[in-house]
Amino acid sequence: MTLTATPxxxxxLPFDITRIRRDFPILKREIGGVPLVYxxxxxxxxxxxxxxxxxxxxxRDHNANIHRGVHTLSVESTDLYEGARARIGAFIGATDPHExxxxxxxxxxxxxxxxxxxxxxLQAGDEVVVTEIEHHSNIVPWQMLRDERGIxxxxxxxxxxxxxxxxEARRIIGPKTKLLSITAMSNALGTIVPLEVLIPLAKAHxxxxxxDGAQSVPHMAVDVRTLGADFLAFSGHKxxxxxxxxxxxxxxxxxxxxxxxxxxxxxxxxxxMERSTWxxxxxxxxxxxxxxADAIGLGAAVDxxxxxxxxxxxxxxxxxxxxxxxxLADVPGVSIFGPMDAQQRGGVVSFELEGIHPHDVGQVLxxxxxxxxxxxxxxxxxxxxxxxxxxxxxxxxxxxTTSEVDALASALEATTKFFGMGG
Length: 423
Ligand SMILES: Cc1ncc(COP(=O)(O)O)c(C=O)c1O
Fold this sequence. Notes:
Blueprint: H1 17-22, E1 30-31, E2 34-35, E3 37-38, H2 49-62, H3 72-91, E4 100-103, H4 106-121, E5 127-131, H5 140-149, E6 152-156, H6 166-172, E7 177-183, H7 195-204, E8 208-212, H8 224-227, E9 231-235, E10 246-250, H9 252-257, E11 268-271, E12 276-278, H10 292-308, H11 310-329, E13 334-337, E14 348-353, H12 358-367, E15 370-371, E16 373-375, H13 380-386, E17 391-395, H14 402-418
Parallel strand pairs: 3-15, 5-6, 5-7, 7-8, 8-9
Antiparallel strand pairs: 1-2, 4-10, 9-10, 11-12, 13-14, 14-17, 16-17
Bound molecules: pyridoxal-5'-phosphate.
């Protein structure tokens, strides 16, 4: 019996969309008698049979608690869990798998840094720089820290086209900047952030850098050896993995210097009735029984993505996004938000349909089997900057096709007719 999850031979599979779609059973579903067109991938991705099978295999054949046991099942579970950590580390170019800390999701990873690094190393008056296009999970933890510790929170503003104002960034990032905490890609607009400009700027002032990779790690090659950041946060569920598992990657020296986030079992070296000492990284940050099965499932997801190659995933998404930008621009009443160049954005297209509230658009599209997201996308500052209460958002992944974009466009035309708009 092999204990490696879906064996990764390192061989590349051709990017064959028909074969890829066969791996995702949910894509065969019908909604109200019409085929499902799943375009809500920025919220969460679907899962291939390889990941589903790995979860089942773990519970069926290996399930036990990890690290503490000497019995066979516990050793097997530990090997699978730590094996997944090593493969996820390799996927993002980490040189030491111990720099991969398992969390629940991106939100928990950012909160971990705010608690365990921010509360120890930031003082009143220190500046934390974020941007106007962040997801709430990269705003709220810093506002909480500001209210508690008196740090100063600054925002790099968004330009009307959804890109960042880099001149303002150069003015805002300065000697008082202690942390630049920044998304690699906007989940609301798809804007790809020029990290290659902003990270060196922050580094020139000696700042620590956290990258929110929730939308980049699933969709493009990310390598922490060249990224230049100190922390990288991402979620398993947006990259073919299960819900409830995420990652904080951090430089070992920083993780080592931080205090624990939560106290309890598994994160200690010694406990007596007076005091406790901490286990080494990453155990120090993984208090209690971790999400063993889903970490192993994420390992299988990473194997799947690696077999396709992240450059191929990105190439496919540029193709689909470029097609969607052109196709939707032809639909009467549609206005698209964000950069109009597919190279400058990820597979996210936010739009409005003239005179119809995005929630109504989403509901009518559902009757055509088309699943999109509507609302503020946990990015209310972006909505405020666009001066809209909400947008409709279609977001793509490696299994989406141009015919699904056509289905979206036809359903939007039908929505306009349904509401008696468009003359
Ligand atoms: C850019 C970005 N950051 C953070 C998050 C939060 O991710 P999670 O809900 O998995 O913690 C999301 C989720 O949509 C996101 O798109």
